[in-house]
Design brief:
This protein folds into two domains: about 45 residues, Orthogonal Bundle (Arc Repressor Mutant, subunit A), CATH 1.10.10; about 120 residues, Tetracycline Repressor, domain 2. The protein contains nine helices and no strands. Helix 1 packs across helix 2 and helix 7 packs across helix 8.
Length: about 180
């Protein structure tokens, strides 16, 4: 689906502004996007519609990034690491939705507004089951637990990056170490 350039710019700017200050007025978004508030309302009738559109965009972009991560290699362990890195990148860009929903862009349950999400979710679950069948991931944890743990590692990584409490150069390494050891890799 092609999104007009102005609408996409508004979505990108709104995501940035809402990440900084969820209570920011729509005027700030319009100003930062270089348009009038009237132009903003031409594309989005209300704040709620703009937020909903930002969430749909986040689901679409993150589902695509996760699918690309899975497709980047045939090696299952490397797929998991690529997925974690893609999830962290998406989670950082769309941190607002992590805070609003209590989980990274609702990655645990399929999103009805994102047609590709159930496919990515099913592929992720199948990858976990495959690694369990090979004895790589412990059978003591369910695929759902592994996915929730994956999400919690992403949230921790995003928080560490946002607070600056961990050296930036080490964050992703720590995330992978924690996740991989936590599932028995």
């Amino acid at each position: 689906m092609l999104v007009p350039q102005t609408k996409q710019r508004l979505l990108d700017v709104a995501t940035q502004v809402f990440n900084e200050d969820f209570s920011a007025p729509l005027e700030r978004i319009a100003e930062r996007a270089g348009v009038t508030r009237r132009t903003l309302h031409r594309y989005f009738a209300s704040r709620e519609e703009l937020l909903s559109s930002c969430l749909q965009e986040a689901s679409r972009v993150c589902s695509q990034a996760m699918a690309e991560a899975m497709d980047s290699t045939d090696e299952p362990r490397a797929q998991l690491e690529c997925m974690l890195n893609a999830g962290i990148s998406c989670g950082t860009k769309y941190a607002l939705f992590t805070k609003l929903e209590g989980q990274p862009a609702s990655q645990v349950a399929p999103q009805p507004d994102c047609p590709s999400y159930p496919i990515v979710y099913a592929r992720f679950r199948a990858l976990i089951l495959h690694l369990q069948a090979q004895g790589v991931i412990s059978l003591h944890v369910t695929p759902e637990w592994v996915m929730l743990f994956f999400n919690s590692i992403m949230v921790t990584t995003i928080n560490a990056e946002a607070t600056g409490s961990v050296a930036r150069a080490s964050i992703r390494q720590f995330a992978w170490f924690s996740f991989s050891r936590g599932i028995g890799l």
